[in-house]
């Protein structure tokens, strides 16, 4: 399963994490349950911040896909979710 969470979804106007209750609501809505998660972004920086947000409120095993979008996007046969808003 692939889900997309934008960094700005997890932070307030001052670029600080939203409350634990708000973060819990965001990640609970994805129905991650006890799945292992691999987080990816363009270079790894945003992934690190999202991992921190997830670890504040979830018990999932979380890793950063260090090849990030640069590697994933260069492979023709890997799935790409284009359903998120820009």
Short description:
The protein is mainly α. Helix content is 36%, strand content 7%. The chain is built from 4 helices and 2 strands; from the N terminus they run H-H-E-H-E-H.
Account of the protein in words:
- This protein has 86 residues and is mainly α.
- The chain has a single domain (7-70), classed as Oxidized Rhodanese, domain 1, CATH 3.40.250.
- 36% of the residues lie in helices and 7% in strands.
- β1 (37-39), α3 and β2 (62-64) form a beta-alpha-beta unit.
- α2 (20-28) crosses α3.
- It starts with 6 loop residues before the first helix and ends in a 14-residue tail after the last helix.
- The mean pLDDT is 86.
Fold topology:
Layout: H1 7-10, H2 20-28, E1 37-39, H3 45-57, E2 62-64, H4 68-72
Parallel strand pairs: 1-2
Measured as a percent range, the helix fraction is 25-40%
What composes the largest sheet?
2 strands, parallel
Low-confidence runs of at least 5 consecutive residues: none
Strand content: 5-15%
**From the helix content, strand content and strand pairing, which structural class follows?**
mainly alpha
Structural Rg:
13 Å
Lateral arrangement of strands in the main beta sheet: 1-2
Please tell me the total number of domains: 1
List keywords for this structure.
single chain, mainly alpha, 86 residues, 2 strands, Oxidized Rhodanese, domain 1
